[in-house]
Structure to design on (143 residues):
């Protein structure tokens, strides 16, 4: 049994993957704050929820169904998401649009960046705590 077979780790990995992809989209939105006609994008929450349902087996998929990892050499570090391509980006205009059609509000984007960072930090902390519990369970008694 590998760590990837434990559902809590799969869910936390997917959450961290989605948050990383969201952070990239938000950075792209901020970079295009002056681009005429640019509409900001965000991660579609439905695509994230359906991906989590597949990992946990809650939507009719079998519980044994896991995302397969691929490496070209045995010593390579395995990647979980292929650059965040699993998460669907959708247009999400902010509350105001400028005369040139740009719908990016820097205040809202920065707020989303901070929220995403806090969620990522929480997921990373839970991942570390869960690994600590697994290590504790694997220790020999009396050590």
């Amino acid at each position: 049994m590998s760590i990837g077979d434990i559902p809590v780790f799969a869910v936390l990995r997917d959450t961290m993957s989605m948050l990383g992809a969201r952070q990239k989209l938000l950075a792209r939105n901020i970079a295009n704050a002056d681009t005429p006609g640019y509409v900001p994008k965000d991660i579609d929450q439905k695509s994230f929820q359906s991906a989590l349902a597949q990992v946990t087996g809650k939507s009719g998929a079998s519980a044994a169904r896991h995302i397969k990892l691929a490496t070209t050499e045995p010593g390579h570090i395995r990647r979980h998401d292929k650059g965040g391509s699993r998460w669907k980006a959708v247009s999400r205009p902010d509350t105001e649009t400028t005369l040139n059609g740009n719908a990016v509000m820097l205040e809202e984007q920065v707020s989303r960046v901070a929220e995403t960072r806090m969620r990522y930090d929480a997921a990373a902390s839970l991942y570390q705590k869960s690994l600590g519990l697994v290590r504790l369970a694997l220790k020999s008694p009396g050590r």
Q: What stands out?
A: Residues 60-69, 79-84 have pLDDT under 50 and may be disordered. Residues 3-138 form one domain. The helical segments are 7-31, 45-56, 106-138.
